[in-house]
Protein: Methylated-DNA--protein-cysteine methyltransferase
Amino acid sequence: MKISADILHHADLNRKDVDNFTKKNVVKSITYYIEHKSPIGTLLLAATDAGVSGMYFEEHRHFKGKHGWLNQPYHLHLQLAAQQLDEYFGGTRQQFDLPLALQGTPFQRSVWEALIAIPFGQSTTYGHHAAVIGKANAVRAVGTAIGRNPVSIIVPCHRVVGASGALTGFAGGLERKAFLLRLEGSERDG
Structure:
């Protein structure tokens, strides 16, 4: 419900009262999840009604837990994500076509959105990725944002490697990163 200035005046409310009411009564979106078997272990897929919001590995470094989430095996976004991940692991999908609900700072989202442009079978460096998004002097911040990517594989942070080509920093572990790059037959770009 939108509160007009006239109602505020006549109801003898002020802007601060309305702002406080709004902050206390914000309806947060519900996060749904499923657990999905894969060749690299059980994946926890998360979504809101807006899109896929998480894809976490067992022992995922930055996962805060599913407290308050609802197990919903028939949620459309989760079913599509599971199907497309199966196709990816089966070698029949190279690009994901899913609505995403990425939750992070504007800087993090810009880093994550640019990851989607790294082609299947290619890898790039943290420095090159930083330059691509116009933040060439912020390689560490870009690397930190990549490490906090909540939708691993689908937003392909595994395609970013160290300057020497070494496998570095992956919230799901370097063994999984190596597996994903081998699965894609990765070649270095940039």
The CA atoms of residues 102 and 157 lie 14 Å apart.
